[in-house]
Amino acid sequence: MTLLLGAAAAYLIGAIPVGFLIARAFGIGDIRRQGSGAIGTTNVLRTAGKTPALLTLVGDVVKGAVAVTAGAAVAGNEPTGSAVAAVAAVIGNCWSVFLGFRGGKGMATGLGALLRFMPWAVLPSALVFLAVVATTRFVSLGSLLAALGVPLVALALGYPRVAVAGTAVIALVIVGRHHENIARLRNGTENRLGRSVKAG
Length: 200
What we know:
By secondary structure, this protein is mainly alpha-helical. The protein has helices spanning 2-14, 18-25, 41-48, 50-75, 79-94, 107-117, 119-136, 139-156, 161-177, 179-187. Helix 7 (119-136) runs antiparallel to helix 8.
């Protein structure tokens, strides 16, 4: 029961639509009707600018960390509770109850969640993300490679199996949420970082 309550708490925190709220606060309106339609940092950057995007990034990362902290505390601060809370937080971000079960792609929330309970597995993947984005300017490609790398690093570092399984589920969710980006990458039509989209 405590595991389910912890998952519910993490889901509700993860479901807070940070990018949606920030975009509205900056006069963009419904961010889902702008740019790519996503509520995450990249679309906020393209439609609203650097400051709202930075606030969205920080907010989603903090949200992920808080969700794991709260969910794990409710579940008894066991590795299983942390892993379930991390997965629940990402699911909340991707399918938010506050947005009719629509939402983001889980990357920043997943980063915050995983930094909270397995930071050493995240850091190498964060470097991969930065390197890929710096050289290609494809945020989506960097996100995909980073997400897929975390379970492998966690396994190599000897994290508990339940933690590795949790990161694998998160990676699969993130990959699934990027299916449109994957199609555009294959077709050569994916947007590169730095391309602005006028809101309206």
